[in-house]
Amino acid sequence: QVQLVESGGGLVEPGGSLRLSCKKSGIIFTLRSMGWYRQAPGKQRELVADIALDGSTHYADSVKGRFTISRDNSKNTVYLQMNSLKPEDTAVYYCNAARTIGTALWGQGTQVTVSS
């Protein structure tokens, strides 16, 4: 069974940077895109960024110019580089694998806290 395992979360001061990693075990034959979502306390889960099979990317307006999604196919890993972090970026970040057939796959989440 395919699993998504996130890592790289933690506590960082405002203005700082973090890089999240999502390692995918196994092959998803119906994969459409990989992405990162986040959920802050009391709020709905929201899309942060995603990357399609052709490499095209999409970002939420709130993170454009600060976050970058990328992937390393040789390592089955997707990354989210987060720069200029703000307190409002504090959330649990989830890796997502969207599929053309079947439900999406989710990782267990990694906490990102931006605070001084």
Shape: globular
Taking the sheet with the most strands, its summary is: 7 strands, mixed
Number of helices: 0
Query: What is the string of helix and strand elements?
Result: EEEEEEEEEEE
- Counting helices, strands and paired strands, the structural category is mainly beta
Q: TL;DR?
A:
The protein is mainly β and 116 residues long. Helices cover 0% and strands 54% of the residues. The protein is built from no helices and 11 strands.
Topology:
Layout (H helix, E strand, L loop, with lengths): L2 E5 L2 E3 L5 E8 L5 E9 L6 E7 L4 E3 L7 E6 L4 E6 L8 E9 L5 E2 L3 E5 L2
Parallel strand pairs: 2-11
Antiparallel strand pairs: 1-3, 3-8, 4-5, 4-9, 5-6, 7-8, 9-10, 9-11
Explain this structure.
It is built from no helices and eleven strands. It has strands at 3-7, 10-12, 18-25, 31-39, 46-52, 57-59, 67-72, 77-82, 91-99, 105-106, 110-114. The strands form two sheets. Strands 2, 4, 5, 6, 9, 10 and 11 form a seven-stranded mixed sheet that branches. The protein has a four-stranded antiparallel sheet with strand order 1-3-8-7, with no helix packed on it. The model has no long low-confidence stretch (mean pLDDT 96).
